[in-house]
Amino acid sequence: MGKKVLQPASVQAKGSYSPGWEVSGGRIIYVAGQIPWDAEGRTVAKGDVAGQTRQVFENIRAVLAEAGATLDDVVKITVFAADIRYRDEINRVRTETFKPPYPASTQVAVAALVDPEWLVEIEAVAFVPD
């Protein structure tokens, strides 16, 4: 019971993510896509993808705390970036935010997010063992 990183020798993971996780015997927490809003619903760090990514992870942290979980419990994130050129900055902040073993991660460049001021949106899945 718990969680285990899945890292087959035939699958390379370059960067701050793991190829997969196996979880059993606990609670799964799904965090909806978080955006770079502060507590008052204002977009922060306009034009600064690193600053927006930090705010998004802070919002994820707050949602997880409501369930008694932390960022250490995250097993999967999905990143939606408004431009593929933001990849390196987002990855840098992700590496600052998580410690190994890293969550499984999918990163997608999209044509646009709902608000043109948003540069990044991230959803997460966390697992808390019983």
Describe the model:
The chain has about 130 residues and is of the alpha+beta class. The protein has one domain (about 1-5, about 15-130): RutC-like (60s Ribosomal Protein L30, Chain: A, 2-Layer Sandwich). About 20% of the residues lie in helices and about 35% in strands. The protein is built from 2 helices and 6 strands; from the N terminus they run βββαβαββ. The protein has a 4-stranded mixed β-sheet with strand order 3-6-4-5. It has a two-stranded antiparallel ribbon with strand order 1-2.
Classification by helices and strands: alpha+beta
The total number of structural domains is 1
Helical segment count: 2
CATH topology: 60s Ribosomal Protein L30, Chain: A
Query: What's the SSE pattern?
Result: EEEHEHEE
Report the C-alpha radius of gyration, rounded: 15 Å
Helix-strand blueprint:
Blueprint: E1 2-6, E2 20-24, E3 26-34, H1 49-66, E4 74-81, H2 87-97, E5 104-109, E6 120-129
Parallel strand pairs: 4-5
Antiparallel strand pairs: 1-2, 3-6, 4-6
Helix pairs in contact: 1-2
